Amino acid sequence: MLEVGAGSGVDSSFLARLGVHVCAVDYATSSLIASKWSEVDVQQADGERLPFRDESFDLVFSQGLIEHFKNPNKLISEKVRVTKRGGFIIIDVPQRYSLYHLYKSFLIAIGCWPMGWERSYSLSDMKTIAKHYNLTLVRATGWGSWPISASSLRKLRDRGWLHVPEGLLRLSEKNWAKVEESPISSYLGMNITAVFRKP
Q: Terminal CA-to-CA distance of the chain, rounded, Å?
């Protein structure tokens, strides 16, 4: 498995501890903490020029990466190139139709967003990516219901900022997982994760 834009390597290390053979690349040397994640093959590399042969990996993954590229075509093309036929590409990005997106867009507009320029994506964008790169969109799901979720409501209630009856909180907590597992999650979550298959 290859993680592109691995940052501190937390995701790669977690997967390696589960027994997955993981290679992780990141452009910034400061992000690479190879000594801390000794079970991961860590390399400094540009995601737009990956130093691997065609069809090298069964799975290529990125989380929190392509939204920082105004034109991610070269990055996505490289992911497709190094993925084996029949292999999978997973892209996790901020989801456009969420309150988180509105909040982030406001902070970007006033110059207060700490993560630099970002764009958000929709389910429609994931379908466009699949079509453009001749991939099959196997699944797209949303996750992270920021800021409105059962746990957020409970925190607001516990701090005394909002009156929410305990019964409503329990009902919300019980049912929110069902919402995140349903098809509408790709329209409600903070992020959208798309799983593509290379034919």
A: 17
Nearest to residue 108, comparing CAs of 117, 119, 96, 99? 117
Q: List Cβ neighbours of 3 (8 Å cut-off, separation of 6 or more).
A: 11, 12, 15, 22, 23, 24, 25, 60, 61, 62, 63
The pTM score is: 0.77
Q: Which two tokens mark 49?
A: 């020029």
Nearest to 128 by CA among 185, 192, 81, 183: 192
Contact 59, 87 (CB under 8 A): yes
**Identity of the amino acid at 54:** D
The confidence band for 33, taking pLDDT boundaries of 50, 70 and 90, is low
pLDDT 10s digits, 5-29: 988 778 888 888 888 999 999 987 6
Residue 54 pLDDT: 98
Structure tokens at 197: 């298959």
Q: What is the pLDDT of residues 178-194, one digit of tens each?
A: 666 666 666 667 788 99
For the chain, the structural domain boundaries read 46-145+183-197
CATH superfamily of 46-145+183-197: Vaccinia Virus protein VP39 (3.40.50.150)
Peptide bond into 183 cis (omega under 30): no
Asked whether 5 and 48 are in contact (CB, 8 A), the reply is: no
